[in-house]
Amino acid sequence: MSDQSAKTLFFGGEWRSASDGATREIRSPDDGSLVAVVSEATELDVASAIASARASFDAGEFPSWGWAKRSALVARIADLLERDAEKFALLESGDTGKRLIEARYDIADVVSVFRYYAGLGLTEHERVVQIGDDHIDSRIISEPVGVCALIGPWNYPLLQASWKVAPALIAGCSFILKPSELTPSTAIALVHLFEEAGVPKGVANLILGAGAVVGTPLTSDSRVDLVSFTGGLETGKRIMGVCAQTVKKVALELGGKNPNIIFADADLDAAIDNAVTAVFLHSGQVCSAGTRLLVERSIHDRVVNQIVARAKMIRLGGPDDLEAETGPLISKAHLEKVATYVEKAVAEGATLLTGGKRSTLDGLRDGWYFEPTVLDNCNTKMSCVQDESFGPVLTIEVFDTESEAISLGNDTIYGLAGAVWTKDVAKAKRVAGALRHGTIWINDFGPYKAQAEWGGFKASGIGRELGPSGLHEYLEIKHVWTNTSPARSGWFADSLNSQVEEKG
Ligand code: TXE
Hints:
This protein is α/β, with parallel strands linked by helices. It is 39% helix and 20% strand.
């Protein structure tokens, strides 16, 4: 256990305890053991962190450092993260319960996000507008948006934080990072690393605590210019409502209900294997999880039988279990949510083919393990098809035609990601074009890259992370018009000047 209880909030360039001394215990989802004790911020701490960020932005040097200097800083952070990768992976798997090998992949991805934005910072950020007049210089420039509240979830804590802090730093913003109260350890370590890298005082601030307590003070404060949030739909709606009061910019990633469409002419071996990974990776706690399998009727039995057989074989286990293939759910509350979701699905007419309950197999200690679950005979009227379970639960629907597959794939309020499996390239492109989701994979499932935008259509969110658009979220656009040969506008009659002219 790391005893971080002393001082784990960071603002004004100093590590601090909560103003009332409150702390929170972080417990392993694998066995309930104590992982860390951290400070639990108060509203007063939030106000101080915002003041720190505001002062550094309004009166500090960072916004005027220039792109190249900020890029060098972000590249330095990438180097330090690479140096400390194993330490970060251990912290991440400790808080989330995910296998160490998965946490290592996450940290490698975090490094590439910092490296990508370090490189993007060195590209051109100004645009000259061609006016056709030698005396006019019309220039579009990008400036930092200001003070940002960056609120993250618990499934990929450091990775989701990196999608926000790396572009915010490149842009020259100051920020308050608020990780999930369930998984704060890597955010604490990251801010220590920011200090070592030389992030100026007040630019990076860290607040820990429950969203219900620190969330509203953070998102309602008029000194905050932008809120970037990744989390659940209901929390996202609440945040958007709060932000409307001060007309803040918002960037939201609110999950998805992602269709994975398999046509009969697909490479079924690859399609089935990827379908299993798509839904059961990280026990379904993935915003882009392939939780809705849409399968062409003629291959339904073959595909479903194989998926069920594979689901039954999946080995659950904790961070240090080298045989394990996936880990526990994040908390008791989340496990109960997933169990209720399955119960409701069955009550609504879905057929439970495997799983559906907490796994208590020997060796699973007292963790929040849930059996990989497959529900057949589902349809879009059922809540299991419409709501995000965020657990290892696959729902199966059948279709007969291409247009039916498309309309089923779009019959959701969400629009984050989807996949289509077929050997017919033209059909794959037609379906990809018709699906209203932010990422479409053709004959693949899951890859994302720091260079490629990530985000959702419809209720999956607002804005994009990663890629150049992920930086644009943190920039204000300013048009500067310079006239090197000023002249009278001549728009209104000027009696004063005409009198002067008459007298003359
Ligand atoms: O998320 P919350 P929860 C989905 C998933 C999951 C559901 C609920 O379906 O079952 O959301 O999970 C902070 N103002 N996703 O309850 O509440 C909170 O402290 C400001 C999808 O854990 O959205 C945490 O830091 N902040 C998702 C963060 O919001 C508030 C990943 C996320 O918590 C706040 C995680 C408030 N009023 C869950 N209330 C994805 N898109 O990948 C809470 N928070």
